[in-house]
Amino acid sequence: MTSALSTRRSTPPTGTGHVIAVDAMGGDHAPREIVRGAVRAVRTHGLHLVLVGRTAELTGLLAEEGAAGEIPVVHADDTLAMHEGALASWRRPRSSVAVACKLIRQGDAAALVSAGSTGGVVATSTVRLRTQPGVLRPALAVLFPTLPTPTVLLDAGANADAKPEMLVQFAHLGAAYAQTAHGVAEPRVGILTIGSEPGKGNKLARRAAELLTAAADTSPRLDFRGNIEGHDLLAGLVDVVVTDGFTGNVALKSVEGAVRFALEEVRTALTSSPVARAGALLQRRQLRGLRERVDSETYGGAVLLGLNGTVVIAHGASHAQGIERACLLAHELVTGRIIDQVRRRVATTTRAPAWLRLSPNEE
Amino acid sequence: MTSALSTRRSTPPTGTGHVIAVDAMGGDHAPREIVRGAVRAVRTHGLHLVLVGRTAELTGLLAEEGAAGEIPVVHADDTLAMHEGALASWRRPRSSVAVACKLIRQGDAAALVSAGSTGGVVATSTVRLRTQPGVLRPALAVLFPTLPTPTVLLDAGANADAKPEMLVQFAHLGAAYAQTAHGVAEPRVGILTIGSEPGKGNKLARRAAELLTAAADTSPRLDFRGNIEGHDLLAGLVDVVVTDGFTGNVALKSVEGAVRFALEEVRTALTSSPVARAGALLQRRQLRGLRERVDSETYGGAVLLGLNGTVVIAHGASHAQGIERACLLAHELVTGRIIDQVRRRVATTTRAPAWLRLSPNEE
């Protein structure tokens, strides 16, 4: 393990020098597709990666890809099983995710990319990287493929039960993400609720909307645009949508399921008669392009924001391309200094009540 | 008004004799499309309707449709505005919805069909029809177009903040709906949550899942199948999905928005090149059929369950066909005696704690 790290150190990265630790053992197609994606990320984009996992297996796979020695490997005995719950997984100190977090804590890496189970990666990295000073809870941010820039939805599942004050922080975390990754100078923020008029929603959403309205006038400014309904998630009305992790996860998966359902129905409709099938032949390229766009952008990866380190969670079913994309996203967030952006926003935000502060590293 | 009712009484309905009161003034295309839909429901299906609204206007429209005197009209001065909130609307005692509820209370009608604003119709009918004995809260049930039978989702928005005990009742309300409208002998029930393993979700969903598991062994039996995630809503894994009104509304609208988005993207993709356009011409019929199926079945109408009267809320944008369909649904529920089904299920259900009982008509 040490020797692998030394390898990396002996060839100092050109450019930014930010190293991304890639969990090679997490995901349905790990480790082969993870290694392939890492090689593509290095060769195509010049990223600086470390693969974390079982050394023997990974060096073998690198050799098979004709990339022996191109990416340093850090050994980890253990892996998080895809089905493992959060509690079980964060108790494994030698899992590839835990070892990757250790690299970040030591300053040997700036980001973690994993296609492992979301629950396991969230739990492990939250415990091992800890929240940034002042951050109440980390939030899982996902993207919807709106134009011209994607819409950030958070929390997509890290906190099933949230407090109104957390949603205000999520707004700042999401705004930092939209600024860093999508270049949106002043991100517009909405709250996911039911009904378009102010005062609509459940208790949590109503109180959070009040706090967000108040926060709009404080520094750092928040461009709060009010209520967003479920059918607006893909309409691009705002850049950031905040909600609790339960509602966010249900909304995300409802959108995913509905898009998949609709495309499947289209496929059936377009092949239901000889004439329609002839039409479908003429359109093969367009339909494939659409499916890829909706798939990759909606489900490409989630970012866990608010920790002392950048964490990108690729879809569990990721192949090489998904891993490559997740590495690129991690790289963008690191070079855009998202951690600093969050620190600046949260440090100047009105402090939450003491009883709400969860993390032991509150300063 | 009295004369109109007498007209109906002087020509006693053949068949079941269940009369449906149609709010002729609610909806984006009221009253013309409502009247048209009512005429179709009467002529095509032999339903027994009463139109409620401004008499002069409605008799004129009936004459224009060549249906003068075919449907009795009951006068109502007032209407609920589409944008009106729940509070404002239920204070209008002479609105067409309030008058329709009065007909139900008097025994002159068994059901109400309205395309008015959901909030207004829910609030008005809840106050005026009241909940059935033992029912904690009415729940809004919507359908997803799964095969072979639709999936019932409830609550879709009547109760933004719900208690776990309510979700157990929603399961019984939904099961009664699936039995009555879809002929499902033993409806399978799931709870909308995040994660597939037991114990996943927020506090409300976790506690409700415990209660549902316990309820599965009591009478009337509930075939509780555990957790349902957002992406399963259109998969037909269960017949009834229960959730609180906030989550249910977000999920419903997320699905609606995503299906609309996907079909729009398909349309764009299929017309993005001359070759693809040629293909699209060959498929016009199939695509139109698909759009209608997804639109009509998903968004056709919601049913407010648990009141002393059947309430069907058609989509605000309904044209004649949507109203006709809503009338048919109301007719099915009335002839299937859904009120009795709910009474039987709720009466034998373990009673909820006294502090949870909201309605003054608790017996």
Q: Distance between termini of chain A?
A: 34 Å
Q: Tell me how many strands of chain A there are.
A: 11
CATH class of the largest domain in chain A: Alpha Beta
* Quaternary: homodimer
Q: Largest interface by residue count? A: A-B, 62 and 62 residues
The SSE string of chain A, one letter per element, is HEHEHEHHEHEEHEHEEHHEEHH
Low-pLDDT sequence parts of chain A: 1-16
Main beta sheet strand tally, sense and closure of chain A:
11 strands, mixed
- Give Rg of chain A in angstroms: 21 Å
CATH topology of the largest domain in chain A: Rossmann fold
Shape of chain A: globular
Strand fraction of chain A: 5-15%
Derived from helix and strand composition plus strand pairing, the structural class of chain A reads alpha/beta
Number of distinct helices of chain A: 12
Task: For the largest sheet of chain A, list the strands in their spatial order.
Answer: 3-2-1-4-11-10-5-6-9-7-8
As a percent range, the share of helical residues of chain A equals 40-55%
At CATH's second level, what is the architecture of the largest domain in chain A? Answer: 3-Layer(aba) Sandwich
Question: In total, how many domains does the architecture of chain A comprise?
Answer: 2
Keywords (chains A, B): Acyltransferase, Cytoplasm, Lipid biosynthesis, Lipid metabolism, Phospholipid biosynthesis, Phospholipid metabolism, Transferase
Function (chains A, B): Catalyzes the reversible formation of acyl-phosphate (acyl-PO(4)) from acyl-[acyl-carrier-protein] (acyl-ACP). This enzyme utilizes acyl-ACP as fatty acyl donor, but not acyl-CoA.
Pathway (chains A, B): Lipid metabolism; phospholipid metabolism
EC number (chains A, B): 2.3.1.274
